[in-house]
Design a protein that fits this description.
The protein is α+β, with helices and mostly antiparallel strands and 406 residues long. The chain has 17 helices and 12 strands.
Length: 406
């Protein structure tokens, strides 16, 4: 296991960000775990290990349920970052049992498969309207005109956020998600703190209003959800709403534009999809595998673990490389090839274990709806300009995707 200076893995290098998959192949060849000093993490690149570690209870999204910062050998976050951590640390994604179990159970009461299925006509109608607008204009930015407004509107509709207030959601979300990148700057942290305070304040008002005037929406459902005397605290409701909004559109937006950019680069596959719309369900899964919207997921080591003879001590942080796992030739035949008919596709883009994405069924409905609308209404959709990639690693997306309808 050699140091990072001779690794092609460099999450701050634009060439790596343009195409990280060759560097992942090199990492997988190095072994099952590689120490990476610049982010003070252990990188895990193989599908079998990532899949197993996502289910391993010796790892956690937090350590606060077992250790103080000092006991764990970590520094407490700076006090000025507190509003971000209060918001982030009370959401399901960053909790472990028993709190995670309780909150997920209560949220699941409001976020049922039936609730999601009931949204399908709304999602499909909205996708058709957005695509019709794009076609009328002869093209535009697929990200701003279709990929982004669709999931933002859907999750806002679910949460019961009035249309007039929805313009603030995306900027708040983008600022908060900046903290999930490796080694975020002070400027990023300050923007995340500001957004956390504003978003929390907004939701506090919305929750108060829904207590007085309950509706059919998810916020009303979270207020009403209780189990054997258990209820969500106000902070847990706020953190859950923010998590559902951020997770409920970030990945879908990026999966949409990454997916269409991949299709434009693979014209044979795009032609096959246009000829046979029944490929949409397997196409959605393959595009999420092929260019993974969430490239890395972190876990703290709560008890020493051993990977391939290397002991990773308690207090260390593991970075599970979803993008690498989704291109592991041990699991995917010819992983560098886009194959929209791929049937055996156990990608881990929605994670696994207790933190498996609660919104996965909704994301699939949204991705299929926008893809179907584009195939039907814009069968001549073409790339108008080479897109620029966002300078992010963890959340992988494009600045925009300029298209034309010929």
């Amino acid at each position: 296991m050699s140091g990072p200076h001779d690794l092609a893995f460099d999450p701050w290098d634009p060439a790596f960000l343009a195409d990280p998959y060759p560097a992942y192949a090199e990492l997988r060849a190095r072994g099952r775990v590689v120490r990476y000093e610049p982010s003070d993490q252990w990188l895990v690149p193989h599908h079998a290990d990532v899949s197993a570690l996502l289910r391993d209870r010796r790892l956690g999204r937090t350590y606060g349920h077992r250790f103080s910062h000092e006991e764990f050998g970590r520094q407490a976050p700076p006090p000025e970052h507190e509003p971000f951590h209060t918001l982030n640390d009370h959401g399901m994604l960053d909790l472990e049992p028993p709190d995670h179990t309780r909150i997920r159970r209560l949220v699941s009461k409001a976020f049922t498969p039936r609730t999601v299925e009931r949204l399908k006509p709304y999602v499909e109608n909205l996708a058709n309207e957005l695509v019709a607008g794009l076609v009328r204009d002869g093209g535009g930015d697929l990200l701003a005109d279709v990929a982004e407004p669709l999931p933002v509107a859907v999750i806002a509709e679910m949460l019961g956020i009035p249309e007039a207030d929805r313009g603030q959601l995306r900027p708040w979300s983008a600022a908060i998600c900046g903290m999930y990148e490796l080694n975020p700057s002070e400027r990023t942290a300050a923007a995340a703190v500001r957004a956390s305070l504003e978003f929390s304040e907004y939701l506090r008002g919305l929750i108060a209003h829904r207590r007085e005037h309950p509706g059919e929406d998810l916020v009303s459902g979270l207020i009403a959800a209780h189990d054997e005397g258990d209820r969500l605290t106000e902070q847990e409701m706020i953190s859950t709403a923010v998590l559902l909004l951020n997770a409920g559109h970030e990945a879908t937006v990026n999966a949409t534009v990454n997916g269409w950019w991949a299709l434009f680069r693979n014209p044979g596959q795009l032609a096959a999809l246009r000829a046979d719309h029944s490929l949409v369900p397997t196409a959605v899964e393959e595009l999420m595998r092929y260019d993974t919207p969430l490239q890395l997921f972190e876990r703290w080591v709560l008890d020493d673990i051993e990977i391939d003879g290397t002991t990773i001590p308690r207090g260390a942080e593991i970075a599970m490389l979803f993008g690498s796992a989704n291109h592991d030739p041990a699991v995917f035949a010819d992983p560098g090839r886009l194959d929209l008919t791929r049937r055996d596709n156990p990608h881990i883009s929605f994670s696994a274990g207790i933190h498996y994405c609660i919104g996965a069924p909704l994301a699939r409905i949204e991705l299929a709806a926008s893809m179907t609308a584009l195939l039907r209404q814009a069968p001549t959709l073409a790339l108008a300009a080479e897109p620029a990639r966002k300078p992010n690693f963890v959340i992988r997306g494009l600045e925009g995707l300029s298209v034309e309808v010929r």
